Protein 1
Amino acid sequence: MSHARSECGTRSGAPSYRLTFDGAAVTALPGQSVGAALMAAGIVSWRTTRREGRPRGLFCGIGVCFDCLITVDGRPGQRACLVPARDGMRLSAEGGDGEGDGEGGGDGDVD
Amino acid sequence: MAMSTDPPMYDVAVVGAGPAGLSAAVGAAEAGLDVALIDAGRLPGGQYWRHDDEHPPHPGHRDGRLFARLRARLHHQRRLGRLHYLPGHQVWLIDRPRPDTGPFTLRLNGPYDTAPVERDRVRARALVLCCGTHDRQLPIPGWDLPGVMAAGGVQALLKGHRTAAGSRAVVAGTGPFLLPVATGLAQAGVRVLAVCEANPVHGWLRHLGGAARVPAKSAEALRYAALMARHRIPYRTRAAVTEILGEDRVRGVRLDSGEVLEADLVALGWGFTPALELPLMVGADTRRDLDGSLVAVVDTHQRTTVPDVLAAGETTGVGGAALAVAEGRLAALTVAAAHRLPVDPRAARRLRATIRHGRAFAAALHGTYPVPAGWTDRLTERTVVCRCEEVTYGELCRARDELGAEDPRTMKLLARPGMGWCQGRICGFAVAAVTASLTGRPATAEDLRPLSARPFAALVTLGELAEMADGDEEPGADAAEESGADGDGEP
Ligand SMILES: Cc1cc2nc3c(=O)[nH]c(=O)nc-3n(C[C@H](O)[C@H](O)[C@H](O)COP(=O)(O)OP(=O)(O)OC[C@H]3O[C@@H](n4cnc5c(N)ncnc54)[C@H](O)[C@@H]3O)c2cc1C
Ligand code: FES
């Protein structure tokens, strides 16, 4: 997870936010999602899958695939590509099924 | 987060604020209707006019001007109180207590836990569904490695978040959309090693016949060709990525020539898949389009087969932003006419001509950039097909051979593809194709439907379900369960 990433285009005067990911400092620009901020910091995965324990990060980038689930300020199961970064946010990796606290309807098993 | 005030009633609810939905909502409000415009995105513009808070699409650009005008008209109609814009609201359920007549109730929630929602329900006498698309994906060995992304997602990161997703990229798949992704990355300072286009090069020349009738499109093609040359991006045709390499993140790709390119970002796109859950939920007829995707059937007024439900933009077939705008405008005229408001018949005729030409051009593109026949031959026993449930190609083969799964519905039950978080949005096209090919037949609309219908169009909390089940005068809960029970959304 060491590849440095670029933020293209600097915003004159836009102050950057300071977040943490599993305790480590990550900066974000206003308007960036937390997923974009992690990618820009060279962090490409923050979840492992339920069956095979495989790493996952952003895939669709637009809220469709749910690969990017992350815990934001203690709330699990948030889509990193959608949640806008805010100053002081605490992000943490999600293990296992990434499933949150009683969300339903995502599992397709209404049958 | 739930509010139980009486939901307001609108003449029309437009779902989606992309090129189609913005045009439909603004047009309907200007015609004198009360409009709700509901969009999951935080900012108007959809996928095409995606931008961030500080960088609107460039107004010097032809399409940027169109967007600037539409946005100004949107805000003007909001100030006049005719248009209620609800950004950051997902429609997760639509029900209509009386079949084929009377108002619809749309249930709304936020895209993430802390997103405030202004309304959890609205009611409307008519709907215009403009839900757009997402990138179509074909599974490739290694496509689940971090650093592999959907091409549109890479573009969304660039346009919406000013973020380049890597430093050495390969852009692969098929279609003209690979070019703006590649040139966008190059302009952001990313080294683009190649665009790998699976189809043959003479495609470009062949489709210019169709493009000549839509001159702006050929100009666009030439502009990208020039940008590709300026950034020295190799455009390889008949070049398919057969394997993505890496252990816990992507390190490179192997091409069908055997050559390996080292990269830390792989952007994949094979055209687009329209989001059909809302049309299916309300019972609208669907068909398989020329590109193999399931789309909503509409007539020459943008009406679906369900009374008072219209559809516009990529919901009716993938064809680009200009076509989406024309369809959105025509939908607005149709709703206005249904309310006996005066409509200029010449405007409708002009829009129909634009739509006809746009569809002819889209047909030429679909013919030039098909999903390559035989793509399933590259799958290995261990290739993940459904990313959510981690269902491999081998497991699908066994469900077919040992358990007799010959259609996607049975496949879903026995091997669980499309049953995870994304509900088959990513793997649906592939699962339909794989199931059909294992059974020795081409995929049909019947194969696609059970993988495109969803009991809910967005993630729902148990609290929201409970509230719907007991708090309501409408039989919403029953409708939801029925549409989930057989998975095809027919109420
Ligand atoms: C990720 C991505 C990036 C793209 N980038 C480009 C590009 O740079 N250039 C280009 O020429 N084409 C691009 N395209 C193609 C482009 O999508 C279309 O040409 C054009 O945007 C279609 O317009 P539309 O109005 O039909 O749909 P869209 O623009 O997709 O708009 C649909 C809107 O509906 C919303 N929506 C869907 N379902 C719901 C729901 N249940 N509740 C609430 N809201 C909902 C979506 O959030 C979205 O805002 C891209 C496509 C994708 C998927
Ligand atoms: S990257 Fe697909 S949902 Fe976030």
Note: Residues A 62; B 15-21, 38-41, 46-48, 90-91, 130-135, 152-153, 155-156, 180, 272, 275, 278, 313-314, 320-321, 324, 457-458 surround flavin-adenine dinucleotide (ligand 1) (CB under 6 Å).
Protein 2
Amino acid sequence: MTATIALAGNPNSGKTTLFNALTGARQHVGNYPGVTVEKKQGSFVENGTRINIVDLPGTYSLTAYSLEEVVARDFLVKEKPAAVINIVDASNLERNLYLTLQFMELGVPLCVALNMVDVAESRGVKINIEKLGQMLDLPVLPTVARSGQGKKELIEAASHLIIGRKKPEPLLISYGEDIDNTLAEMVKRIEAGNFLTTTYPARWIALKYLENDQQILELGRETNAGLSQDLEKMAAWLADHFSKTLDTDPEAVIADHRYGYIKSILKQDVIKRNVRQDRLYLSDKIDRVVTNRFAGPLIMLAVIYGLYHFTFTYSEVPVGWVESLFGLLGGMAETHLPDGLFKSMIIAGVIDGVGGVLGFVPLIMFMFLGISLLEDSGYLARVAFMLDRVFRIFGLHGSSVMPFIVSGGIAGGCAVPGVMAARTLKSPKERLATLLTAPFMNCGAKLPVFALLVAAFFAEHEARIMLLITLTSWVGALLAAKLLRSTIIRGESTPFVMELPPYRFPTFRGLLIHTWERTWQYIKKAGTVILGISILLWAMMTFPGLPENQMAGFENQRQAILAASPATVVSEIESAGEETALSAEAEAVQDKLFAVDALESEDALRHSLAGRLGTSLEGISSLAGFDWRTNIALVGGFAAKEVVVSTLGTAYSLGEVDPEETGSLSERLAASPAWSPLTALSLIIFTIFYAPCFVAVVCIAREAGSWKWGVFSMVFNTTLAFGLAATVYQVGSMLNLMGG
Amino acid sequence: MKEINMREMKVNQSGIVSAVKVSGELGRRIRDMGLLPGTEIKIQGRAPLYDPVALRLMGFTLTLRNSEADYIDVKVED
Ligand SMILES: Nc1nc2c(ncn2[C@@H]2O[C@H](COP(=O)(O)OP(=O)(O)OP(=O)(O)O)[C@@H](O)[C@H]2O)c(=O)[nH]1
């Protein structure tokens, strides 16, 4: 036998902790169908019954205004879990019971886990649990989710509900004469018409009509337009009546009565306080300092910098391991596979692709560990609180700062974990705008490109230019966010009404589970797509290959060089391993051979699909000062931004250029007549803003819940980047600045 | 006792909510958190840029933007 139990409750009530305590590591994270709300599931066996536990999103209420609330209530009415465990924060009983009442009105089989009883006790709050259970007519079990205390009794209570299989009668709260009368009238009509009553209790539907709940209204109109219209009229009449006589609306009166009902329960000796309710707790004292006008921002800067440092410095070592592992694999393939297309695909497509996917894993793990620490301790909510005023100007949210910083707001970040960090944002529009603009920040992979160009053209002002680049990306990202929020993601900002949870020590176990879940999701979901695209990009830069006769031409050149050299030198070169030091003569011949190889690579690149694309775009791209070589490099940069450098190297027939050592390439660019400081500036601007690398695009699509947004970010960013670069180039050329 | 707008309240000042004059999503959110006529509140602090504001009610801390606090009237001691 199997049964489903749903966990529901307010945010910060300890839901996740209880879920972890119940399921251990046996859990599975996915999304609710069609939306980006996370769905956590786990299971365990109790008395021969397999119990599936579903962690519903944390909510304060059950309205249709937020996705989380719709998801939670849809799950309850459609999946009909055999039992619902409502986690209630004992130290915050009054507000938590508001949701409990709504579950009771919905008539779901309910038991209450009165969590954080330890916190309540330490705050001098005594709760008469038996009395509370009587008043609510529900099983109420005290728990401390952190230590697992009470979980056995809780499961027993839930099992009773499952075995009892009795659907409880929905709770009927009196909302005062006016509302009650209207409700009774509506219920009569609803029952007579069998209107949605197989899914929802009749009085609940009527209440939702009074509360003007869009989801239920729409459903009602589809089901029975006529009846729905009658109900809407009755609701409208009541609203009108309230606004005329009491200067209020039914929604307000309903909320009032719900809280009134809770107060009347708590008054019956359910709750005893030894101290005044508004006394300062330790948490408030910490806040005096941490959100202080002067100390607050300084501490925040230090914490943000600390997170950044933690993510990118400590992950260097494991990133290094992954890189050397894949370097090793590449080396093995290099020696053991026969030369040819297959080898090239294995090395450049598969090994580099998988290496690319896994190379991000340590970054993602460290970032989530850091962010979870800040989130679980309660500090992240303070960051949002302090920065909201600034970010709101641009249509964003205080919590947008983390994705921006991790993406490279401090130069050298990475947009992949950055985009994922946007999960902490609960407001949908602000979150989308953050996802789409965070990749403008200067990630570590763009830095070699900047370094190359700055070394070639602005060597004297290096530090200043780098600072300017960082500022440009911030200003650009914020303005682009504003642009998006006033056009395609237009709309009122989501209310900031938010709880500042008390500071708490996060549990190590919670942090690990959280971090691992997210990382695994990345590997599983993003990994496969990324591997596919990596092979595709390899193919674009390889096919079609050079025609036979051209390849033969290069081979002839090589043979000619060898033929002109003394036989001893030729045999020295042929027998030499990679590490062997060559004599000066042999070295000279070797260099000539490499020069031919490099020319061949250049021709092959130009001949490939990517090369043709680059060449055909020259007509437009010349507006921004880019020739076909730059274009190909930028196409390559879609794989990873540092590839711009190595591809430019190939295009300038220098062979593959190591992004870390660009001396010869920057000299080459500085000397080339096709380049000027203005071209370099234009390319710098383009690199800041153009399409994120495809790993980031895949992550954006996943986080935004639709490929549409992945595609949008490529098109929008590239268009914006080109517009800016072309403007700079054209204006600069006109003014004949910088010798352009 | 006098009635003032929540935005005008000073840090550490307490009062009793007398009216919440907004409906729709914002009104709903405000009421769901227990900010209703009759609720006792105390201003706990303000963000460094003076906005949002943090207040204490029913034993927990809530934050609101000033533009959202504008809809809330509070009775305070003179
Ligand atoms: N002292 C104490 N702390 C607890 C208890 N249960 C949970 N916590 C802590 O409360 C904090 C919040 O717990 P979570 O489990 O993340 O809360 P949640 O309801 O899942 O919150 P959201 O993820 O925001 O929905 C964590 O730091 C927990 O360690 C408890 O019974 N006693």
Note: The interface with chain B takes residues 60-61, 63, 65, 91-92, 94-95, 98, 123, 125, 249, 251-252, 255-256, 259, 277-278, 284, 287-288, 291-294, 296-297, 385-386, 388-390, 392, 495-500, 502 of chain A (CB under 8 Å).
